[in-house]
Amino acid sequence: MVLRTTLGPLSLCLADKRGVIQSRWCILKEMTLPGPFLFQTRIRYIDTDTSGRIHYTAMFRYFESAEIEFMRSLGIVYLGHEFTFPRVHAECDFKLALQYDDAIEIEVCLTKLGRSSVRFEFRTTKTGEMAAKGVIVVACTNKKTQRAIPIPEEVREKLKVAVTGQSK
């Protein structure tokens, strides 16, 4: 099973290979099934350059949007805590051109859960073909000291159910 989210209009559904099972926001409270999280959106005009393709830096915003929805699906939000998760590593490889209004699907996998860091891997597809792939590593830090701290246990427990261990 995969959890899918689509922006514009906002909707969310839990689906299997046969089709939609549920379509309600309450699913976001807790996701207990391991597996990829799928985020669907379109390339916005503002994110393209003069060649008509996505600007290389914009892909990281799409990864971040997918990451935020993935975390929300686990019951984790980034605001309102004494800790934060700044990016400490980012990479992206493009395989196909992405242009304005292309429909894309971003698969998010949590592949490593460290003491104070989390590794997310992203696969972006356009019409079923790999268009981009990337990695983001975030580190749990104390907001005041800006120093790395262990991931709080309540957050760690929610993240553990999503670790796939699959590097792509």
Helix proportion = 10-25%
Say how many strands there are: 10
Predict the CATH topology: Thiol Ester Dehydrase, Chain A
Using the alpha-carbon principal axes, give the shape: elongated
Can you count the helices? 2
Rg, Cα atoms, Å: 16 Å
Q: Mean pLDDT score, rounded?
A: 83
Largest sheet: 8 strands, mixed
Structural class: mainly beta
Query: Which runs of at least 5 residues are low in confidence (pLDDT < 50)?
Result: 1-33
Oligomeric category: single chain
What does this structure look like?
The protein is 14% helix and 39% strand. Mean pLDDT is 83; it is low at 1-33. Strand 2 (11-16) and strand 3 form a beta hairpin. It has a single domain (2-160), classed as Thiol Ester Dehydrase, Chain A, CATH 3.10.129. An eight-stranded mixed β-sheet has the order 3-2-1-4-7-8-9-6. It is mainly beta and 168 residues long. It has helices at residues 58-73, 153-160, and strands at residues 2-6, 11-16, 19-22, 37-42, 83-84, 87-94, 103-113, 117-126, 129-139, 141-142. The chain has two helices and ten strands; from the N terminus they run ββββαββββββα.
